[in-house]
Amino acid sequence: MRGSDYAELRAFAAVAEHGSFARAAAQLGLSRSALSQTIRGLEERLGLRLLNRTTRSVAPSEAGSRLLAGLLPALADLDAAVAQAQALRDTPAGVLRLNASRIAAIHRLAPLIAPFQEAYPDIVLDIVVEDRLVDIVAGRFDAGIRLGEMVERDMVAVKLGGELELMVVAAPSYIERFGAPATPRDLRHHRCINSRWPTDGSLYRWEFERGAEKLEVAVEGPLTVTEPEVAIRAVLDGVGIGYLFDLQIRPLVEAGRMVRMLEDWTPPFPGFYLYYPSRRQTPPPLRAFIDFVQRRQPMPSAGR
Question: By the 8 A CB rule, do 169 and 206 touch?
Answer without folding.
Answer: no
